[in-house]
TrEMBL record:
GO MF annotation, one: FAD binding
Top enzyme class: lyase
Originating species: Comamonas piscis
Descriptive protein name: Oleate hydratase
Keywords: Lyase
Length: 654
């Protein structure tokens, strides 16, 4: 493939809707920067192949696998010319899922998903399904599961040892709502290095909203306010489903078996090579006139130093950092022993490559901003492999469907709001693993605060064995007196992860490198620790986005990666989001909208009001008085206009 040099191309591969007003003109061939849909499914027309070109991908997580996919599908490269290097002995990176019923299953974590992960679904609509017949895709399989089994929760928040806490509303006062609105209005540039707790009031951090938000997305109070803002925009369309989690969709199995297995199988079938037990720790570079070109990859492979020389047209995709690096493991009778601290992670860590790149030039960012505060980025999870016990009996009370039915169980995590650890647990559709026996259930537990003693066990979570964490869970479920019966039928595997929310740590411009850093001719950086225009981190979508941007840029493909889905600008989402923030009650000005639009084509965008039409006029004028002030001339004029407008609409409808 002979491609144009991306540095001289006029096409901006990574679209950014926030750069300025977009208006179609005669010279604009592209649609709006955030347009998604079938029109964006085009594949660029390729020229002649670049003889001898190879692609080297460092890291076999979802970003690395996605890079290989796009190199083949859109870049036209042969799979045989692509090699993935990984320090582990299995693909998937942080998207893991392993074990068996005898020793216990383990998943270190999971990621919530929704409908507008446009890059992720672009990829998986072309990946053959795991279980459906030939011709179906992973997306087809995913839709089949979720369309026939919608997700929701009936016990999202709990407290007082087994009682469901009222979570029907977000519990925000007008002052709290205004804090959120002001954050949405702020420019990103205003929020460098600010923390969530430095902006929000203390009372806000005790609301239903914050318990729902922080437990769902794993935000700590001291983490990035900028990242929270980006999350607010990305999930604005889901705020009305935040309480009962009805805005989410989940795979049939764990995310390793649901996504990594079919994608890896497809890539290997196309000839992609995966070289395990190989840690890339440095890149040799040639710098000429501001251009940086990778000439070799330095690795440790099977304990030996290896140097991989690159050809003149080769391209490199490298993972920066890792959220699951340095994981310490434990079990029912053993607490995990953490080997990582705030000291430098070392050359045997997944941070080594980024550290060495950053030492070469500021364009590669500041990795120490993310790995330098283990206490601030750490939390722990526990995977429970369960047979019948009092724990399962309690689970059945809290579940949407019978846990053994194969349908939605808890509908996402259940959070204990009075837990000192901010503990949550979940049971996804079962079986959670394809080989899981029918009498076994797999539950997942995690907590956010690692420096507080438990309410029942007088230890911090990292100090606890699996049995003690199980006891803390049973306490919050109101079955503490039955812990022995629960432990006798439950296997526990622990994962203490020092960097699991490192990507959320407060940051400023320049702390994260761009996907293709300035001057780089054949290097793209992918994963959770790179800068994109407006997307968030800690999602599979953002990993795929970085890979796609990298492939299109390095190969000079005439194709743009759209900005995040434009749902944040949809007036319907703004209105229903305002309703949700206001405790599901009409927000100030909503009744005025009903007065103006109630008899028009656009009436359907408005949520139904709790009162009848006779009361609407009085309520609407009251809202108008709040906005304009009582007794003013403006109030009288606007009221008269509304009356004439409404009368006119009624006359025309007769």
């Amino acid at each position: 493939m002979k491609h144009a040099d991306s540095r001289t191309s006029s096409l901006r591969v990574e679209a950014n809707i926030g750069e300025g007003f977009w208006r179609k003109g005669p010279q604009d061939s592209l649609p709006p920067p955030d347009m998604v849909g079938a029109y964006m499914r085009n594949r660029p027309v390729l020229g002649a192949p670049v003889a001898g070109r190879k692609a080297w991908i460092i890291g076999s997580g979802i970003a690395g696998l996605a890079a290989a996919f796009y190199l083949i599908r859109d870049g036209g490269m042969a799979g045989e010319d692509i090699t993935i290097l990984d320090a582990l002995d299995v693909t998937g990176g942080s998207l893991d899922g392993a074990g068996n019923a005898e020793q216990g299953y383990i998943v270190r974590g999971g990621r919530e998903m929704n409908w507008n992960y446009d890059n992720f679904w672009d990829l998986f609509q072309d990946v053959p399904a795991l279980e459906l017949p030939e011709g179906y895709s992973v997306l087809d399989e995913y839709r089949h599961v979720n369309d026939n089994d919608p997700n929701w929760s009936k016990a999202r928040l709990m407290h007082q040892q087994g009682k469901i806490r009222d979570f029907s509303s977000l519990g925000l006062t007008k002052a709290h709502q205004w804090e959120i609105v002001k954050l949405l209005l702020k420019r990103k540039e205003e929020l460098d290095d600010l923390s969530i707790e430095s902006y929000f009031s203390k009372s806000f951090l005790e609301t239903n909203f914050w318990y729902l938000w922080r437990s769902m997305f794993a935000f700590e109070n001291w983490q990035s306010l900028l990242e929270m803002k980006l999350y607010m925009h990305r999930f604005l369309d889901a705020i009305d489903g935040l309480t009962d989690m009805s805005a989410l969709v989940f795979p049939k199995y764990n995310q390793y078996d649901s996504f990594v297995v079919p994608l890896t199988r497809m890539l290997k079938d196309k000839g992609v090579k995966v070289q395990f037990n190989t840690r890339a720790y440095d890149l040799d570079m040639r710098e000429e006139a501001g251009a940086r070109t990778v000439t070799a990859i330095r690795c440790k492979s099977a304990g030996q130093d290896v140097q991989i020389a690159l050809g003149p047209d080769d391209v490199v995709f490298a993972l920066t950092g890792s959220m699951t690096e340095g994981t310490a493991y434990g079990d029912l009778d053993t607490a995990p022993v953490l080997a990582r601290s705030n000291e430098e992670p070392g050359d045997d860590s997944d941070w080594a490559l980024w550290k060495r790149l950053a030492a070469k030039s500021p364009v590669f960012g500041r990795p120490e901003k993310f790995y330098g505060d283990v206490k601030g980025s750490m939390w722990e999870s526990a995977t429970l492999t369960c047979k019948a016990s009092p724990l399962i009996d309690k689970l059945k009370e809290l579940s949407v469907n019978d846990p053994y039915s194969g349908k939605t169980v808890t509908g996402g995590i259940i959070t204990f709001t009075d837990s000192n650890w901010v503990m949550s647990f979940t049971c996804n559709r079962q079986p959670h693993f394809p080989d899981q026996p029918g009498d076994v259930l797999v539950l997942w537990v995690y907590a956010l605060l690692m420096d507080k003693k438990g309410n029942h066990v007088a230890k911090t979570m990292p100090e606890c064995t699996g049995r003690e964490i199980l006891a803390e869970l049973c306490y919050h479920l109101g079955i503490a007196d039955q812990i022995d019966a629960v432990a006798a039928n439950t296997k526990v595997r622990l994962a203490l992860m020092p960097y699991i929310t490192a990507q959320f740590m407060p940051r400023a411009a320049g702390d994260r490198p761009h996907v293709v850093p300035e001057g780089c001719t054949n290097l793209a950086l992918v994963g959770q620790f790179v800068e994109t225009s407006n997307d968030i981190v800690f999602t599979m979508e953002s990993s795929v986005r970085t890979a796609r941007i990298g492939v299109y840029t390095l190969l000079g493909l005439a194709k743009q990666v759209p900005d995040i889905s434009p749902t944040q600008y949809d007036i319907r989402n703004i209105i229903k989001g305002a309703r949700a923030l206001n405790g599901n009650q009409p927000f100030v000005g909503e009744r005025l909208l009903h007065r103006v639009l109630g008899k028009t084509y656009f009436a359907h965008i408005l949520p139904p009001l709790p009162e009848n039409e006779e009361t609407l006029r009085e309520r609407a004028e009251s809202e108008l008085a709040q906005l304009l002030g009582k007794g003013g001339q403006a109030l009288g004029k606007v009221s008269a206009w509304l009356e004439r407008y409404s009368s006119g609409m009624r006359d025309k409808s007769k």
